[in-house]
Amino acid sequence: MTAVEMEPTPIAGDSVEPLLKVRNLVKEFPIKAGFFRRQVGTVKAVSDVSFDLFPNETLGVVGESGCGKSTLGRSLLRLIEPTSGQVLFGDEDVTLASKKRLRDLRSDLQMVFQDPYASLNPRLPIRDIVGEPMRIHGVPKDEAKERVGDLLTRVGLLPEHGNRYPHEFSGGQRQRIGIARSLALRPKVIVLDEPVSALDVSIQAQVLNLLEEIQDEYELSFVFIAHDLSVVRHTSDRVAVMYLGRMAEVASDVDLYDHPAHPYTAALLSAVPIADPKRERSRQRIILQGDVPSPAKPPSGCRFHPRCPIAQDRCKEETPELTEFAPGHQVACHFPLEIGETLAGRMSDLGVSTTEVVVGDAD
Amino acid sequence: MTEPLLTVDHLSVGFHTKSGVVKAVTDISFEIHPGEVLAVVGESGSGKSVTALALMQLHPGNTEITGTAMFQGRELVSMGDRDMRSIRGSEIAMIFQDPMTAMNPVFTVGDQITETIQVHNPGTSNSAATKRVVELLELVGVPEPKRRASQYPHEYSGGMRQRAMIAMAIANDPKLLIADEPTTALDVTVQAQVMEVLHDVQKETGSAMMLITHDLGLVAGSADRVQVMYASRLMETGTIDEIFYETSNPYTQALLRSIPDLEGSKGALEAIPGNPPSLLKPLQGCAFRPRCQHATPECGEAQPTLVELGGQHASRCYHTDKLAPIGAPA
Q1: What is the three-state SS of B67-84?
Q2: pLDDT tens figures, A67-122
Q3: Which of B214, B262, B268 sits opposite A201 (nearest CB)?
Q4: Per-residue model confidence as pLDDT tens digits over A275-302
């Protein structure tokens, strides 16, 4: 193992014990081919990821498609078995829990999925969908029934809706049902995997507001996985940026958005369109070259180096570890941007053109 | 002002379904001028894509269309198949959201672009067409265009495929490009690349563009004029600054306020309560009334007309004067 043991520093004060500690988590999927289904390679979906989740905190996880953010989310709950590493909930390692114990643990660790059309059983009425976790965990029938009504009311539906089926609801309402289900067992942690990306903006705002309310009310911690950087900034206390299975940068939302240290974070932020024409006109955009490489053949050294506008020779050979850059601000880069330094500034210092758009090859 | 390239007049589109007629587009009129970018914004089901499909006669068979669309002296809605085919892909070209399903998987990308060229210019020799294909791929930033032309769509990444689709769309120097959510399937860094290409190409060829999108950020960065649609109707139209800084329709205003910004404002978002109305039943009064905070009894009686507000600005609302200016976000 090249991985170095490290303890991320909490920003919420050292006295606060993390609720969830993820250490050196790895998930690799075998690629099988041919008649005998021999393994011909591995997709390195999540490589050596470590982070902490504190009570009542929302940790945003952002990245482009294929960066491993959803695999990470599912691995936390062992909906996908991680290849190695630890997920410590309190003192208990979730990755070592027996089947029976895992069932108990999942009453504390819940998940809300992206697709509100695929994540609800079309043959069950809503009251059974929301009540199922309670049935499995042996909550008495009467109590469960009452709680289903309360939960539906809490997420902005009516108790009578319990008799209806998923197809009778719109996307936003279905996402509310998914949230009600995740709340049924009064969990401590909810992993939200792109909870609003399938929704229209007007509905998206409703669901984001609902999530915020229930977080306060139920004292929840969220792992909020999304590709939309504006949504993540709005909802998160701290943000982790992933690139090709690795953590590129982890910081408080203010530090990350206002002083990105990793060139990938800076480029990502500069690519986000802003709904303000005047600012759009005056903005200098750094457009990255090429596409995200395949996680089956990740580049050597820093996985971002082929697209990085400020990469040096060292980046091709040596993998940067996620290290403390400033208090509560970690970055995995050999040449991070200093506070106040912009990516465009660094590029012009290095004599790299900021306007020329060179397009790298897809493979 | 120059003669419009496209003049759409009272266009309505209805789909016959088992449960009745769905009014997907209701009485829409607009113009597109040569060289401009008109963004059509709206949420799913607002009728923005259907408008484009109806203009190109790409709608399904159960559709009823009324109204007219004059394109360079020719009427598109009533046009026969043969005439339409000669316009589609040459004078008006379309870029779809999903390049994987919009391309034919069993032909190489080069073959598909060649076909587009030769269908509309039957005299073009194979070698001339091949040369043009390589030029086009180079123009849209596909590296090693010669080798890439002989590859199949599945060998391209999402961003590259979208570039190839843009190359195909501009193969015959169209006067009007219709881009229907061209970057929605792409990641943000790739989206920035593709939008850049689209702009360069549009500048180079001087074509007008109808950009259909739900992303107000994309609109802010790329459009000249904006048209906001809601529940099959045109709610507000104007230049980009008029729409963003002198917003005169409660729906547009609510939409702009409901998106989180990158600046990190916390606290509750100003969500729009409720859901969009069903388009199966005829709507009484203003379509946005049930969700509108400015609604009065008047709004429920008759649909407001699209009122001219000076400049190119027009809004469909009785209470335009009561709206607080939204201004530029601080």
Answers
A1: EEEEECCEECCCCCHHHH
A2: 999 999 999 999 999 999 999 998 999 999 999 999 999 999 999 998 888 899 99
A3: B214
A4: 999 998 888 888 888 888 888 899 999 9
Give the E-state strand segments of chain B in sequence order. 6-17, 20-32, 37-41, 63-71, 74-75, 92-95, 176-180, 208-213, 225-230, 233-239, 306-308, 314-316
Domains of chain B: 1-88+224-260+271-323 (3.40.50.300)
Q: Which helix (H) or strand (E) holds A29?
A: strand A20-33
Q: Taking CB atoms and an 8 Å cutoff, what residues of chain A touch B270?
A: 205
A140-168 pLDDT, tens digit per residue, is 999 999 999 999 999 999 999 999 999 99
Measured between CA atoms, how close is A2 to chain B, in angstroms? 30
Measure CB to CB from residue B262 to each of A170, A201, A257 and give the nearest one.
A257
Ranges of CATH 3.40.50.300 domains, chain A: 20-236
Query: In this structure, what token pair is assigned to residue B273?
Result: 């309560």
Cβ-in-10-Å burial (0-12, 13-18, 19+) of B226 comes to buried
Q: B274 vs A363, which has greater pLDDT?
A: B274
One CATH from 3.90.1150.10, 3.40.50.300, 3.40.30.10, 1.20.120.920 for A20-236: 3.40.50.300
- What DSSP character marks residue B94? E
Strand ranges, E, within A196-264: 221-226, 238-243, 246-252
- Spatial separation of the C-alpha atoms in residues B220 and B218, rounded to whole Å: 5
Q: What is the pLDDT of residues B192-249, one digit of tens each?
A: 888 999 998 888 889 999 999 999 999 999 999 999 999 999 999 999 999 999 999 9
Bridge partner list, A329: A326
Residue of A93, A90, A60, A91 whose CA lies nearest to A76: A93
List Cβ neighbours of A246 (8 Å cut-off, separation of 6 or more).
A47, A48, A49, A303, A322, A332
The backbone torsions φ and ψ at residue B229, rounded to the nearest 5 degrees and listed phi first, read -115, 145
Inter-chain touch A201–B219, beta carbons under 8 Å? no
pTM assigned to the model: 0.88
pLDDT band at A14 (very low <50, low <70, confident <90, very high): low
